[in-house]
Design brief:
It is built from eleven helices and two strands, in the order αααααααββαααα. β1 and β2 (148-149) form a beta hairpin. It is 66% helix and 2% strand.
């Protein structure tokens, strides 16, 4: 059932379109850098000034730009549609007729959304690596610590950074899955999930509530960049992933409690 759900979701035109858009973001940025020459050293978003020197940085720029907005938006679409979308189409009751049970169905939906989170991060990295290889030279990678590593090691760290960026969406995905069990309107679930991302961003900029900053699920979304340090700084990455696990546990339990007791009428 899990394999069938994964195949079904990733064959949907909407999912393919979301992944293509994510892959196109770093490609478009690489083209802009190629045309304009890019900013001078130290200017612009992180890694942008390095793209023209080494195409591998196109992927990292794509991740830097996508993580605050584009990745959350696409994940919110998947998470918000997971249960509410089935209800709005009238297929949820038919899924529950199968001897899988509500808990198993919810788990399968959660795994599918998590798989999309990782695929979304890899799509950004793949688009950036391909565009960077076509438009710019490739070679040894200069880390944020001003040391150099081999091209192979740089690609490995870039792909790992993409996975970390994707895993950073797990907490938000769990929230979206929970909200999806509360309504039969997928657009409402998507909007509410994105609204919480915006709220966290606002709270993160308010110093008066800095006591809660470490607990916001958006707090360490940019920690993937620490993989481009030498040696790698794992503190921020570890805190981010543990925080995502905590959100998954809390909102996963809330989603299970709601979904296993709700009246399914559609």
């Amino acid at each position: 059932m899990l394999v069938a759900e994964l195949v079904s979701q990733f064959r949907r035109r909407r999912v393919k379109a979301l992944l293509l858009v994510l892959a196109a973001i770093p490609a478009l940025l690489a083209v802009l850098v190629r045309v304009t020459g890019g900013p001078s050293n130290g200017n612009g978003p992180t890694f942008v000034d390095q793209v023209s020197h080494n195409g591998i940085f196109a992927a990292l720029v794509g991740l830097t730009v996508s993580v605050p907005v584009f990745l959350p938006l696409t994940v919110a679409v998947m998470a918000g549609d997971s249960i509410a979308g089935e209800a709005s189409l009238g297929t949820l009751r038919y899924l529950l007729v199968r001897p899988a049970g509500r808990s198993r169905l919810l788990l399968i939906k959660a795994v599918t959304v998590a798989a999309f989170c990782l695929a979304a991060g890899l799509a950004v990295a793949a688009g950036g690596l391909l565009a960077g290889a076509v438009l710019f030279p490739l070679g040894r990678v200069t880390t944020l610590s001003a040391t150099t590593i081999s091209l192979g090691a740089g690609i490995e760290r870039t792909l790992l950074a993409a996975l970390v960026a994707g895993a950073s969406m797990f907490g938000m995905a769990a929230i979206g899955l929970f909200i999806s069990t509360l309504t039969d309107v997928p657009v409402g679930a998507m909007a509410a999930t994105i609204g919480l991302v915006v709220l966290c961003a606002v709270l993160d900029s308010v110093s008066q509530v800095q006591a809660i900053h470490p607990w916001l699920f958006t707090q360490n979304w940019s920690s993937f960049a620490d993989l481009l340090r030498d040696p790698v700084r794992w503190t921020g990455i570890t805190h981010d992933l543990l925080l995502q696990l905590a959100y998954m546990a809390v909102f996963g339990a809330a989603a299970w409690s709601r979904f296993t007791t709700k009246d399914v009428l559609a």
